[in-house]
Amino acid sequence: MDGGHQCVFLGAQRAITGINVGDFAIDLELDRAAVTRASIDSHLLTLWRTLTHATGRVNKRDVGFLRMRFDSRQKVEPGQTEIETIDGRRVPVKLIVNPRARHVSVRIDPARREAIATAPSKRHLKHAAQFATERAGWIAQELSRLPRGVSLAPGSFVPLRGIEHELVYKHGRKPAFIEEDLLPRLVVPAPDVALFESRVLRFLKDQARTDLIDRVATHAIALGVRPERIQVKELRSRWGSCSVDGVLSFSWRLILAPPFVLDYLAAHEVAHLREMNHSRRFWALVNKCMPDYETGRDWLHENGSKLHAIGMAR
Ligand SMILES: [Zn+2]
């Protein structure tokens, strides 16, 4: 190749890369093949070679044709996918559409231990996927920084109302109980060790429900409201919610946190029975229930991901 051709080569490659890299990434991702910057580049190079070999040069029309071909391929749908880092690690990414989003973005969801790539519309999903691919290294690093998962197995240590308890298995059918000691233990009988985890979970949910009913009642009286119902369940993306018909839902994991944290969430959701927003008026109501509510809010901000790591054996 002489100098002149070299220029054409670079120019053409840039043109194709610039237009098609995103589409390529999507194609590869749909095939569940490795998607790396290098693999995309090598594909483009092969493509360019084939093209120049066939035509002797690359012109605008060819590039347009390529673009058309890739665009006509299967569109990216919202859902779970995987991307690959330069060093070959596979990273889970969830692709979602959020019409309120203004740009494509990537964030880490510590509760689900995955990255979420958001696009403002379905049309932008492939750009969101590409955006995530370019940040695969960052995503892998952030995920590896998350607290290690704690399984609800005999011998594990799990906080209960903010205090570490050792989980102890006992053969039997009696209800679980707490042994207060220098090292508190949560003794959970089960007819079989295979049922241990579900029994632990049941106990923790029951405890959470008891405490929440108590705290919600207190705050409801303070604000002169009446919740329709209280639900305690697995909530992955938030700690609590309040439905328009007055049903308050809470994450069972609140029982793991110190009591003022659960108390804050109870006050927060009860306040939503009066103000279905996060306005100044809303926070004034929370403040009325719990003047130092910020301590609870800050605690969750700082430690929430640790609570989400509990009950996850990863
Ligand atoms: Zn809220």
From TrEMBL:
Species this protein is from: Candidatus Viadribacter manganicus
CDD domains found in the cross-reference section: M48_yhfN_like
Domain YgjP-like metallopeptidase span(s) in chain numbering: 103-302
Pfam (any one): YgjP-like
Protein's name according to its UniProt entry: YgjP-like metallopeptidase domain-containing protein
Origin: domain of life: Bacteria
Signal sequence, start to end: none
